[in-house]
Amino acid sequence: MRWDIFCQIVDNYGDAGVCWRLARSLSSLHQQEVRIFCDDLPTLNLIASGTDASVKEHIDIQPWEASFSNARHPVQTPNVVIEAFGCDLPERYLAGLFIAPVKPIIINLEYLSAEPWILDFHGKASPQSHGISKYFFFPGFQNEAGGILIDPVPSDGEVSKANIPTALKETWSKLRANAKRISVFCYPGAPLRKWLENLGSLNEDIDVLLTHGHAEQLSLYGQQAFQLPSNLQLLSIPFVSQDEYDWVLSQCDFNIVRGEDSFVRAQLAGKPFIWHIYPQEDRAHEVKLAAFLDLYLEEADQELRLAIISAMTWTMPSEWFGMLNQWSIYAKDWRTQLLKKQGDGGLAARLLRFTS
């Protein structure tokens, strides 16, 4: 089938990451014909830059306006249209669907959630005055939800340890042999500086890998430079592609992630993590985090449960870091169970079955 995915980028990386991973899953795993129309091609191309050329060449990446402005080569009517995260389709593109001899299915692809109420709305019709069939599709962790994106399934961290991506070799050469590794990718509102200062009070060598932009956020340079504790080493990594970032997550002992795509990849890496969920004014993010923790901690004992909740709510590391080994074992078990539940192919495969 032919798929059109519409992606409007809100927070720079997460929206583009999900749309790109979905496109390549549909194309490479399920041999679907996929186009992405995006309002921020530079960001999307950065995310996709490390993908194997044989995969990338089968996905048609287009600017947003190409969906309706190319009069000489009109866009062929797709079988399925994805409104990623509920973005509105361009009116002129939608007008073209009205007159198409065969109408497509429109999928309103919602944000990932573990909240129980999504099961009541997942797959339900959204009647439209124009008569084109439209449905809600909710990604989720439960068997009855829309699934998560699992492509590519990450290899074991030990297996991939030697395959250092070229863009990361310089940074990796500076890592200390016996130090723990923590990667950091969070929103500006996180108490990161205070968190790192507390981390430095622990009697343990720790290498902290800062993703693009975090060094400036911490004021590592200039008169207000961050004074590093002796056991802490901060290293900035360059902006890397999606696959290269997946690799980083697999090689760290602990990861701080944000948004949706890195949140899922942190779980598939089988490592402990903090999910810095996107803050919302009505505090809806707290409900979403609590719903995820209800699922994530279902098999955890009380001591580990309290430690993980503390970490996820930005309690200082000295309060819970001693539970990291137990958390690591638990995270590996969670990864195993997650992949087992997504054994039907996850989000891409469930979308395909739903629309076929």
Key phrases:
356 residues; alpha/beta; Rossmann fold; 2 domains; 6-stranded parallel β-sheet; 5-stranded parallel β-sheet; 16 helices; 38% helix; 15% strand; globular; EarP; protein-arginine rhamnosyltransferase activity; protein biosynthesis; glycosyltransferase; transferase
Task: Characterise this structure.
- By secondary structure, this protein is an alpha/beta fold.
- The protein has two domains: 2-150 and 344-355, Rossmann fold (3-Layer(aba) Sandwich); 157-341, Rossmann fold.
- Helices cover 38% and strands 15% of the residues.
- The protein is built from 16 helices and eleven strands.
- The chain has a six-stranded parallel β-sheet with strand order 3-2-1-4-5-6, with helices on one face. It has a five-stranded parallel β-sheet with strand order 9-8-7-10-11, covered by helices on one side.
- Helix 1 packs across helix 16.
- The model has no long low-confidence stretch (mean pLDDT 90).
Task: Characterize this entry briefly.
With 356 residues, the protein is an alpha/beta fold. The protein is built from 16 helices and 11 strands.
